[in-house]
Every structure is written in structure tokens, then in C-alpha cells.
Amino acid sequence: MSFRDLRNFTEMMRALGYPRHISMENFRTPNFGLVSEVLLWLVKRYEPQTDIPSDIETEQDRVFFIKAIAQFMATKAHIKLNTKKLYQADGYAVKELLKITSILYNAMKTKGMEGSNVEEDISKFKFDLGSKIADLKAARQLASEITAKGASLYDLLGKEIELRELRTEAIARPLEINETEKVMRIAIKEILAQVQKTKDLLNNVASDEANLEAKIEKRKLELERNQKRLQTLQNVRPAFMDEYEKIEEELQKQYDVYLEKFRNLAYLEQQLEDHHRMEQEKFEEAENTLHLMQNKLKEEEKRLFKSGSNDDSDIDIQEDDESDSELEERQLSKPRTAMEVLMQGRPSKHIVGTMQGGDSDEVEDSEDSEIDVEDDEEDDDLEDESIALSPAKPNRRVRKPEPLDESDNDF
Q1: 3-state class of 321 per DSSP?
Q2: In angstroms, rounded to a whole number, what is the distance separating the alpha carbons of residues 82 and 100?
Q3: Do residues 335 and 307 touch, judged by C-beta distance below 8 A?
Q4: Which residues of the chain have pLDDT under 50?
Q5: Is residue 9 classed exposed, middle or buried when 0-12, 13-18 and 19+ CB atoms within 10 A define those classes?
Q6: Cα 232 to Cα 238: distance, rounded to the nearest angstrom
Q7: pLDDT of residue 359
Q8: 335-389 pLDDT, tens digit each
């Protein structure tokens, strides 16, 4: 008995809701009435439907009561109680009572914590379930093995009736001494042969040991000889070692040269590829510009051709009464084409003649001479390609330009 046990017992009984106040002085002397009352209350608290007799007047009743309590707690709660200490009903009985009160107190405490930590318990349960998958597999395998063993055991028990008869017949049958002696002699001979074989092996152990030692010594001598040979070979320098080192140095130099040339070759190939790529880009750019210029020239030729045809039509429909200023403004406003430049470059031809009917030969000769002079002057002007003309006022009646041979080919 200790003070701590008494204190814990009183506190647990108070927490469990025992109606009577329990003092630590109650167990200084034997108090079977209090012990029996506490035991009965704890049993009712553990299982309310329990029916245990509460008579404690005589000694036999008290013994029967203690035995009933101990048997109930052993079968239901798996708690082993010391009946002698409980029957003493003093401080030693408190230790036995603590076994029951501690279980009830822990159950009450865990029940109170379940209400506040329901989610945590669920998560813990899930975690524990996931962590014990291997245990579940092992349990499933054991269950299958148990089922198989049970089936085989059931089959064997089904044959028990026949086997029982055979067993009883074998037991009831009298033993034949001659056969028994024969079997025993055979077994003894086999055992003696095994013993002799074992003795022979033991005798041969010494010779085997000697042979093994001789082999070990031989191997040791070979090992020492090989080690000495290895040392001599390591100390002696081969005759071709100097030549080997020279060749190795030359090989290293050649390898360095090879690396340098390989690096330069790779660099030059890269530069060549860059140069070819730049040339290709320039060529493609030149081709593109050439195509653009050709397209522009074709469009310009088409535009000039269209403007030239428009100018010819305008010249045909000009009226005689246009003023000189209007003609100058129209000429300045329109773009000059090659046809206009040629027409402006030609001077106006003056027609010389008389009003008389019938032309004389002299007049014809003079007219021919004047026309020849004017044609020569026009040819000189075309050869010199002098397109700049003096701003002379044209005649009021505009003469239709003469058609030029192969004028379309000029464009």
C-alpha cells in the first residue's frame, strides 16, 4: 500500500461518479463493507445487467462474493484479481481495486476526447489502415491457409472411423518375437555399419590433414617464388623502355599537332559555310531587286504606252480655235512622251505656192528645193538628238502628225 495508490483511487472514484465520499483513512484498518460496496458498484458500472449476490453476513457468503467478482472480471474484462488481498479489505485491496478503476477511468477519458477529436480520429484511422496494408495481406493469406488446413483436417477426421479400427486391430494383434528379433538385428547391423564408416572417416582425417598441410606448404613456396620474381621484374628496366618513352613523346607531339590542325580545319569550314551563306543571301537579294526593277519597267512601259495613245487621240480632236496660251498650258500639264518630243522637234513646214491654176515647172522646182532643204534640216536635228526647242508659237491650225513607221517598237 502507498499514499500515491490511495490518492489515485480516491480521485478516480470521484471522477467516475461514486456517490459516497472515500477518504484515505478508510483503508487504515480492514473495512470489508466498503470494499464489497465499491466492488459491486464497479461491476455494475462495467456491466449493468450483471447479477451478483450481495450477501456478506457470513464467512462463506464473503468468500463466495469475492470469488464471483474475481471470476466475472477475469472472463469479461480479462483482469486477474488477487482474492486474498481483496478479502483482507485493507490498503492492499486498493491495488486490486485500482486495476478495475483505471480501466473505467481510461475508458471515460477516451470517450470524452472522442467528441472533440472526431476528425482527427478518422484521419488517424485512415492513416493506420493505409500503413497496415501488408498486415492485411498477411492476414488474408493466413486465413486462406487456415481454411485449407481445416478442410484437410476435416477430410482426415472423416477417415478416423476406418483408421480407428485398423489401429485397434494393430494394437490388439500379438507381437511375433521372431519377426521382431529379425527386424531389430537388421537395424543393429545398419547402425554398426554406419558406426564403422564414421570410424573410418575419423581415422582418415589424420591422413587428409597431412595431405592438406603438404599442399598448403607447396602453395606457400610457389607464392614466395612468384613474389620474388615479381620484385625482380619490377626492379629491372626493360631494354626497349627508352625507345618506348621517346616514341610516346613523339606521339604526344603529333597528337597535339593533329588537334591544332583539326581545330583550324573546323574553324575554316565554319567560315567557308558562313561565306557561302552570305553570298547566297546577296544573290537572292539581287535577284529579288532585279525582278522588282523588271516589273517596274514593264509597268512604266505599259503606262507610257497608254498615255501615248491617249495623247494621239487628244491631238486628233483639238479644235482650231484654241488659243496659244491654252495649248502651252496643256503641253506643260501633260507628261511628254517620245512621240511628242519627236513632233515638237520637227519645225513647221511652210507650203509655198500661188493661187493660180496650173503649176509651172519653176514653181515645182522651187517647192521641191524648199522641201529638200527642210528635210535636210530635220535629219540633222534628229541625228544631233537636240530635243530642247525654242518656245516658238505654233500656228493656229494644228496639223495632224504624220504616222511613223514601226512606232510601236519604240516602246
Answers
A1: coil
A2: 12
A3: yes
A4: 124-125, 320, 332-367, 369-371, 373-374, 382-383, 385-401, 403-404, 406-407, 410-411
A5: buried
A6: 12
A7: 45
A8: 444 444 444 444 444 444 444 444 444 444 444 544 454 455 555 554 454 443 3
Alpha-carbon span 200 to 180, nearest angstrom:
30
Q: How far apart are CA 76 and CA 111, in angstroms?
A: 20
What pLDDT, on the 0 to 100 scale, is given for residue 192?
95
User: How much is the pLDDT for 43?
Assistant: 85
User: What does the pLDDT look like over 349-363, one tens digit per residue?
Assistant: 444 444 444 444 444
Q: What length is written for the chain?
A: 411
Tell me how far apart the alpha carbons of residues 339 and 318 are, in angstroms, rounded to a whole number: 17
Kindly report the number of other CB atoms within 10 A of residue 135's CB atom: 10
In the prediction, which pLDDT does 281 show? Answer: 94
Look at residues 25, 27, 22 and name the one whose alpha carbon lies nearest to residue 94: 27
CA distance 283 to 181: 120
Which grid cell is 359?
503649176
Coil, helix or strand at residue 28: coil
Cell of 377: 534640216
pLDDT value of position 395: 45
- For residue 25, which amino acid is it? E
Q: What string of H, E and C letters represents the secondary structure of 266-288?
A: HHHHHHHHHHHHHHHHHHHHHHH
Q: Which three cell numbers stand for residue 401?
A: 502628225
Nearest 10 degrees: Cα torsion 344, 349, 350, 355: -130
**Structure confidence at residue 114 (pLDDT):** 58
In sequence order, the 6+-apart residues with CB closer than 8 A to the CB of 236 are: none
Cα–Cα distances (Å) from 100 to 71, 93, 104, 378, 401, in that order, read 13, 12, 7, 148, 142
Residue 393: which residues within 8 A CB-CB, separation 6 or more? 324
Residue 337: how many other CB atoms lie within 10 Å:
19
The Cα–Cα gap between 162 and 142 comes to 31
Distances (CA, A) of 6 to 36, 38, 49, 140: 17, 14, 29, 47
Angle 119-120-124 from CA coordinates, rounded to 5°: 120
Does the pTM surpass 0.70? The reply is no
